[in-house]
Each structure stands twice: as structure tokens, then as C-alpha cells.
Amino acid sequence: MAKLDQGPPNYKEMLPPIIKENYGKWKYHEIPRSGVLKHVSESGAALYSVRVGTPRLVSIDFIRDVCELADKHTDGFLRWTTRNNIEFLVSEEAKVQPLIDELDAKGYAVGGTGAAISNIIHTQGWVHCHTPATDASGVVKAVMDDLYEYFNSMKLPAKLKMGLACCLNMCGSTHCSDIGIVGVHRTPPRIDHEKIRKGTEIPSLVASCPTGAIRPDPKNKSVIVNNDKCMYCGNCYTMSPAMEIYDAKNDGIAILIGGKVSNARSAPSFSRMVIPFLPNNAPRWPETTEAIRKIIELWIANAQKGERIGEWVERIGWEKFFTMAELPFSDMLIDDYIFSRETFRTSAAFKY
Amino acid sequence: MTEKKTPLLDELEKGKWPSFVSEIKRAAVRTEAAAELLQVLERSYVERRGHWKHGGIVGVRGYGGGVIGRYVDEPQTYPALAEFHTIRINQPSGFFYNTKTLRTICDLWEKHGSGMTNMHGSTGDIILLGCKTEHIQPIFDDYSDAGFDLGGSGSCLRTTNTCVGPGRCEFACYDTLEACYNITNEFMDELHRPMWPYKSKIKFSGCSNDCTGSIARADCSVIGTWRDTLRIDQAAVKEYAAEGFDIQGLVCAKCPTKCLTFDSATQELSVVGEDCTRCMHCINKMPKAIQAGKEKGATILIGGKSTIVQSAFMSWVIVPFMKMDPEDDFAEFKDFMRRIWEWWDENGKTRERIGETIYRVGMGKFLRETEIAPVPQMVFRPRANPYVFWNQDDLDTSSVEL
What is residue B243's DSSP assignment? Predict the structure, then answer.
């Protein structure tokens, strides 16, 4: 009989001795090289964390491999980061290089520190979710392969965080990332009236629509969708299996930029849409990787030192960004939802 | 094991970034489920659509959540994926592990499941990806015996998450790891037995760098801060200057309130403490010279969520400063959460996040009913329109003729 409500394992039992001894007494840190953090405590003790990228979707063989490395180099202690990287926790400087050598030899991706592109926070996609408009793992792999040089170096103007969500539920961090990749539909749901009659709670289905495009059809014991008011968010499908919305020919990806969560310098901000649609060109999504690279290279060439993408664009102005990026501006990028007016330019100050 | 070709996915074994396709192939050597997962995914790549059926309600005895049911849409073609459920296991604070624990996770999953995992889900859980319905209870029993518990799913308190905190960060303003562990254990019932209008998440960040993204990814964002003045080590400032670090350009000029002054003659850095908004920029740039103040605690912000339904919200300030004290068992925070959840449970509509409920009924009503005093720190700026609600009972009605 399982024990109920015992909660997570106690983290204290899995902290390496150097962390137990210096808990809450860290004085400062340095980044000696890409992928390595050095934390120095008030006692003078130094902890080295060696950061390694992962695909997040991993087999138990991967975890066992990593355990073998940790047993050999870090007395069996390691952690994951909030961006799904692994950090080997090394308590002696002499053990850092042998670990890195072995990681390099085995093809692990060492990096993700400082002014770099770290791992992409992403979701389930076609691997396990029922509402996606694109895949997650595949797009992430394609983008990270393309931008790998920025993962294992620290040559960007500032750090760059990316998020990918396979639908508008936007699980993860897409809405608050420097670059957000979001799966989007472009066609309304297809109603299966028989399925609705069998097992859908119609009031909840009606209430799930952000634009009020769905209304009950009591005569038919089903619902009616006003296609003119539908913007294909797919939330009705989340509520009811009768509202299938995937459309292989028209589903794809939108790109948002300029979000951040840290409070450093400027307030946390949402990412903003700059490309409304790119096709699902599996397995490499070349249109997506190319668009992202172009934006990043423009930012590298033009941002001041320390400027996140959003801070750079806000300084130069979005109109200038669109010119520089040679991205078409369309009415699809002008907000027409609840909080839209705040995004209009209520000022005569702008650049031509 | 069925040998079938996967030309599109094979492309994704090339390149320098670690490949998830190689990972599925490794698991496919052991389990038919992983082998078929590869086939379904290849088909999705060809057809550009998913192949998972809608929803699915499965679980374990005693809990209302923790397992995400999933079924493939063609069970005859992919019998090993006819049932392919995800189990969420509550991760340890800060994702700290030893290899013994990780091996236990692997051994149990090898016994029961597909061999595939997510390390970790976006909310924080260890994700065990793919098992049959009949295995769910034995899986839970085994993991439970090994000291693990399920994470959250559904309209409940979801698994809480934290940054690395005092475990390895000099910026941490409270013990995020202990707060996460302690508070998760306090609210086990709320986590395992969904009873609310919708999901509710808490994330703990030790400072306003917000390494968990709490402000955007949690209904309650607990962000470490301090109430007194920055501490500056002038000798260390001089060392930065001596190394040629541009203190004026990269630190003072970027300060959002311009409260830092660098005197290039004396090479001293000074701060107008009461003007600092604790954004962390100067500390980030000069960690050896600048430290947070001594009087530490957290700012509590409420309302963060993603797009659906009313747009994405960032959490906003409700309590500017709260002590986060392990000594008193985080009593003030727990009392606060109970009050606001109770209010939301009464007032929230079905599938309405707390941020949307507050937005719909108004901050004024929310604050009055939860007995939280309004303060200017809650807003960027006051309202511009004059459409103010007054409580009619508070007005002088002595001379009004009806």
C-alpha cells in the first residue's frame, strides 16, 4: 500500500558536502569559461558547476550515463537547472578539466552560461500532446543545431532565452522569452455533433471561447461556431474532443520576441509577435531556423553591450526593428484582443 | 523488435545539439512502446499532425491527479501505445540529486514503463513518459516505497518549484529550497486532491533575477528582496575599476533609477539607498563588490499565467515585503495563501485562474475581502478614469431626500 502525501524527497539528503557546509554563505561567483561557474564561499571554499545541455526528452540510459560521469567525477552529486540543463557539482578545481575532457570526448554540449543562448524551454509536441499545432523536440533540435556556436561561447550582447510552445496554451515560458516559438492554427474547429451530444458539457465549452464565437444550439443539442469570430486558439478542443482543429496544411509557427522575466534594468515584459506564420517544414523547419538566426544576428550587430533583445528593440523603436529586420508588417501584428489599445501609438513621436 | 525506417527523424540525429531521436532509439531497444513512439512520430513528421487522442482520465487510489492519460488514435496499428500515460513525480527542491536516487528512478521506470522521461516538466516534475493503465498503481506503489510522491495535475495546487537559492547563489534573499520543500508538504492535500476552480502554481525565486520565471509562470510568485540599503565593498569596487571594467557605462548608466554614482577621482561607488528598486543589475554586474541589504524577505505577487483565456498575465504586487522565515515555519506565507485561495474558491468561475478572477471582480473587492491593505507599490500608476465604486454604507446619508 502506497504511502500518501509523503511529498518530494528531501533535497537536504542530496546536497553535496561542500554545499551543506557553505549553505547560504556564498560570497560571489565567476564564469571562468563557457559552461563553468565558480562559486566562492565566505570560508574560501570554491564550488565549480559544469553545465551540460540536454534534449530534455531523454531515456533512462541517458540518466544512467550521466550518473556514471557523476560517480566518477563529482562523488555522485549533480543537479538539473530550470532550463533543463545538467550541472555537475565539482568540489575541487583539479577535477574540473578531466570532467570537461570526458564530456567533450563523449560529445556532450558544455555551455549555456553568461551571454549565451541556453537551452530552449519546450513542451510535448507530437511526442505526447493532443492539442499541438507543431512539434516541440524537433523544432528545438533544429534551432539549437543551427545556433550551437552561441551555446558554447559567451559572445552575445546579453543572455538570450528561448521558449517553444506547441500550441497557444503556451506551457512553459514562450510568452516571456527573448524569442518565443509558438505553434498556431489558422482554421476553425470541425464540429462533430454526435460527439458533442455524447459527452460534452456545453456551457463549459461555450465559456472556453475567448472571443465568444461559440453558442449553444439547443435544437440540435450541440453548438454553433461563428467562424468570423474564431481566431483558432483551440481552447474549445481542449474542452471537447468534438472540436478537432489540427489542420496539417495550415498549422505552423509564429515568432514572438522581446520578453524577459528578470527585473534587471527594465521591468519584466511579454514577448511580442513579429512573424505571424511559418510553415511546419519537418524535420528541420528551415524557415523557422533562418528567421530566428536573422533576428539574432541583427541584435548582435546593433545592440549595446548588456542589452536584451526586448531592451534593444524598445530603445530603437519597433518600427525601426521591422525596417532593419526586413520583416513584412501586417494587420495580423496589430493587437485586436482585450488589452489592445495600450499597444497603439498614442504619440506623434516615431521614426520614418 | 520491429525494424522500420524513420528517414525524417534520422535527420535529427545529425548536428551538435544532443538528439532526442537518439534517445528514443535507445529506449526502443528495450521497449516496444518506445519503438512504436518512434513510428508514430515519424508519421507525424510526414503528415504534419499529432496522433494522440483527446484527453483521458486515469489515476491512483487516494489522489485526484498526478497522471496524464494518453491514448494513440490508431491502437490497432500501435498496440504498445494504446495506453501511453504520463506520471508526474514531485522533484526535490532545486533539482538536486545524487546518483543513487536517479538510479532508483531509472530502475523503477525500466520495470514498468517506456524508458522515456522528461527531465523535467516545465512546472518542475520528473516526467515518466508512457505506461499502461494497469501499471499506474504498481508504479505509484513502488515509487512511494522508494520515497517519492506524485506531483500535481488538474484543478489543484500544482507542483511547486524553486531556483537553486542558498544552495549555490550569493544573491538568494531567503531559503527558497526550504520554503519550497516545507510549503509543498504543508499543502499536500491541496496538491493531490483537486478542489479549486482551476490550477494554481507557486514558484520561489531567491531574488528579482527570477530564475524560475515565477512572475510569468506562477499564480503566486515569491521573489526574494531586501528592505534596507545595498552594501558596497569599496576595495572591491577599486579592483573592478583597476581591471578596466566600465563602472560608469555598464553599471551606473544602466541603473533604472539612477541612484548609483561612481566618483572616478576617488574610485568610490555610492548609492542613494531609498531610491533603489532592487532590480539586481548592479549586483549582477559586480557580484564581488555589491551585495543585497541585510533585512531580507520576499515580495509576493499574484496572478501570473499564460494566454488562455484572458491573455497572458504577469503577477502583480500584493505584499511588497514579507519575511520568509523557516524558524516560524513560513507561517505568514501559509496564512496568506489560505486566505487568497479561500477567496478564489468562493469567487472564481470554472477554469478561471486567480489572476482572471481578481481582474474580473476588481482589485478593490479582492483586497477588501482578503483584508489586505492597498498600497501604492501595487500599481505602476493610479487609474486615469474617474469610474470609482464607493461603498454606499460609508457615505453621509443624513440630508439626502429619497
Answer: T
Q: Which residues pair with A164 in a beta bridge?
A: A181
CA atoms within 13 A on the CB side of A241: 13
In chain A, the residue whose alpha carbon lies closest to the alpha carbon of B103 is A64
Residue B1 has pLDDT above 50, yes or no: no
Among B residues 331-360, those touching chain A with beta carbons less than 8 Å apart: 349-351
Question: Which of A15-19, A197-201, B126-130, B212-216 is predicted with the least confidence, judged by mean pLDDT?
Answer: A197-201
* Residue B39 touches chain A, beta carbons under 8 Å: no
Residue B67 has pLDDT above 70, yes or no: yes
Distance of residue A346 Cα from the nearest chain B Cα, in angstroms:
15
Alpha carbons B52 and A127: distance in angstroms, whole number = 9
Beta strands of chain A (E only): which ranges? 26-33, 36-41, 46-53, 57-59, 77-80, 86-90, 109-110, 162-165, 179-184, 190-191, 214-217, 222-225, 243-244, 252-257, 272-279
**Residue B313, exposed/middle/buried by CB under 10 A (0-12, 13-18, 19+)?**
buried
Q: Is A162 helix (H, G, I), strand (E, B) or coil?
A: strand
Q: Torsion angle, CA of A220/A225/A226/A232, rounded to 10 degrees?
A: 180
Q: Which chain B residue is nearest to residue A144, measuring alpha carbons?
A: B17
Based on the number of CB atoms within 10 Å of its own CB, is B69 exposed (0-12), middle (13-18) or buried (19 or more)?
A: middle
Residue A286 neighbours by CB distance under 10 Å: 12
CB atoms within 10 A of CB B160: 28
Establish if A72 touches chain B: CB-CB under 8 angstroms. Answer: no
Nearest to B17 among A128, A144, A262 (CB): A144
Q: Does the pTM of the predicted model rise above 0.95?
A: yes
Asked if A218 is an interface residue toward chain B (Cβ–Cβ < 8 A), one would say: no
- Are B306 and A208 in contact by the 8 Å Cβ rule? The answer is no
CA distances to A145, A254, A303, A329, B299 from A295, in Å: 16, 14, 12, 15, 35
Whether the predicted interface score ipTM is above 0.95: yes
Q: Best interface-test mutation with A: which of B24, B42, B53, B95 has the largest number of A CBs within 10 A? A: B95
What is the total residue count of chain B? 402
B72 with B78: CB under 8 angstroms? yes
Instruction: Specify which residues A50 forms β-bridges with.
Output: A36, A88
Chains A, B: CB pairs < 8 Å? 349
A121 close to B (CB below 8 A) = yes
Q: Check if A315 contacts B (Cβ < 8 Å).
A: no
